[in-house]
Write a structure and sequence with these properties.
Length: 141
Amino acid sequence: MNSLTRINPSGILPLSVSKWLNISCRSVQLLTRLRYVDNCDNASRTTKYDRPYCIKLYKNKKVAKCGDVILIAHRGKTFKALLVSNRLPSKTLPRYDTNNIVLLNDKLEPVGTRIKGPIPAALFRKEKKFSKVLAIASKFL
């Protein structure tokens, strides 16, 4: 039995509570676990139990969306990363299975030389800022 059926024996949650649970589980907020999609050194050393997590959102919002720069922590060090896809459904972007990031340096350039997963075509709107990320990507949605 999971915790939801212990709270509510019928297993049916009110609509407002179920909406809140879905959004909070899928969105990228503080302490959300992430996945690398580039071939940087940190990505090769990542295991199932040692994944990077979000520690700061640079925009003053509670939820990060696709194309936002966030601060992550991995193995006791902090890095900047670009959120390229997330699980939060939206009208203009496809919903992905995982929250994916590309590692950036201080000049907001990608550290890796190849991106393994698909990148949403909505990042073309921010082309000037992340043109190098789009140049090393091979698949677009």
